[in-house]
Structure formats: C-alpha cells, structure tokens
DNA sequence: TGTGAAACTGCATCGTC
DNA sequence: GACGATGCAGTTTCACA
C-alpha cells in the first residue's frame, strides 16, 4: 500500500468505469503493472466492489430518512429489514437505540406507512433528510492533486 | 425507463465494472443497444456515477459513527465539514438536530478527538456502529431473478 | 430504437529484467 | 514488481431496418 496504490484507489473511487489504460496514463505506469496492482487490491479486499450510484429522485424516490430504532426482538427485526426494500442501509449501533436505518421512499406518506410497519417491533426516532451536502467522501488522501 | 433499463441498473449497481458485452449477453440484446441505453441513463442522471467501494478497516479505519448535530452556525459548520476527511457523508435534516454526519475514523480515540473539534460549533448525539448488516441495497426491483 | 459488420482500442498474458 | 509485445475481447461507428 504505497503512494501509487493510494492514487489508484482515489481514481477508481471517483470513476469505477475508467479503463486501466487511462489510469496507467494518469499515473505514468505500464498497463500490466496497474492491472496487477488492481488485482491485488481486490484480492486483499481493500476494494470491496464496484457500484453504480443511482439517483433516488430520478427513480421516483423523493424522501430519505435516517431512523434510530430500539427493539428487543432483534432476530425478527433483522428479517424484516432484509425483506424491506425501503431500507437501504442497516447498522447495529451502541447506545439507547440498537439499530440505525437509512430509508428511501417515494414520499412522506410512504415513509409514514413504513414507520408504522416498523412499530410492530419497537420504537423509532426519525430524522428526515432535507438535502445532501456530500456523500461518500474518499477514504484515501490523494497521492497528489495533479491527477 | 422500461423493464430492460431496470435490469441494466440492477446489474450495474451490483458490478459497475462489468463489460457492456457481458451485460448484453445477460439481457439478450445487442451490445450497441445496451451502450446506447447506458448513455441515456447517464445523460438523464439516473446513473449519477460509478464508485469503487473501499473497505474502511483495510485502510486502518476501524470506527464508524453517525453523529446528529445541532448548530446555529451553519455556514461555518459546513465549511468545517467539507474540510474534515473524517466526515464521509453530510446531510441537512429536519427535527431538533439540523445535521447528520457519517464519520469514519481510525479508532475510538480519533473519533473522540474529532467530536471535540465539532463542539466548537454546537452539540452532538453520537451513535457508534457496532456492525453493518447491509449497505447500499438496490433502489430498483430486479427485472427478474434469473440474471 | 435496435441490429450486424468493420475498424479501432483496450486487456490478458507471456517472456524478460 | 515492472516493462514491452502480441493475440484476443470489447467498444465505437455506421449503414440499414
């Protein structure tokens, strides 16, 4: 994990569909060398996958909320969570609440209906997202700013 | 936005580095046709980008937390947020808190140090992530399960 | 919009250092 | 670990439906 690996991670975090050739030009290294480094980063699990970022609003989902949840019935609640397409992220947390959910729904009404279904399992505290300042900031400091 | 577009979105959300040829085989359509649909989905903003998913723990970041934050000094707090590499996501929210942050740090100690810096701007309620059940569930119902 | 064919470009692989 | 060369695979483009 040297500076070049960090550059590769930074570039591919920005644009996962960049070609290896284009990367090899940016970092002034041969194409097979970059391919080999990429392969190793994937194998080590530093790169866990590649995802397209989809726009919720363009897909008719206009409401995003974070829901803190408290339940005594973890097993059933997690099964409910797996089966609920509204729940995009599901975390176990410390503190007075034991779960945190990121929920994406069409409207405020569909969020309300979802929360009512949740209340079979426990109680919640909901924080509706008004706007997103930024999301998914890179975990790696850029090798340098020139690329 | 027909069934085929949904299939494309579902596939590319799973693996953003899949080749167009491979996709065109999966959905039984010619490769130029898939290229054209992809181009349109990008242009319309349905696909907002492509990202590599990096493993925080493999990069030495072992602590993740969600922080609810209340400040009266929004402008300065947002500038602080932009400049803080610990803050991965930053949302404006409704309710008694006006921000929600996803924070990724090396250890509990570095999280603590970060929170102390935050307290120049207001007060917080912190929820430490113990484990992740799932993250980034697809926003599109699969066209069908056979792919 | 979708297709098939052809020219072009990028990638996997191998031998070399 | 990285490089250069090469054959194969994927992409772009275009005429046609």
From TrEMBL, chains A, B:
Name under which the protein is recorded: Transcriptional regulator, AsnC family
Signal sequence coordinates: none
Matching InterPro entries: ArsR-like_HTH, AsnC-type_HTH_dom, Dimeric_a/b-barrel, Tscrpt_reg_AsnC-like, Tscrpt_reg_AsnC/Lrp_C, Tscrpt_reg_HTH_AsnC-type_CS, WH-like_DNA-bd_sf, WH_DNA-bd_sf
Keywords: DNA-binding, Transcription, Transcription regulation
GO MF, any single term: sequence-specific DNA binding
GO cellular component: cytosol
Alphabetical GO biological process terms: response to amino acid
Species annotation: Paenibacillus curdlanolyticus YK9
Record-annotated HTH asnC-type domain positions: 1-62
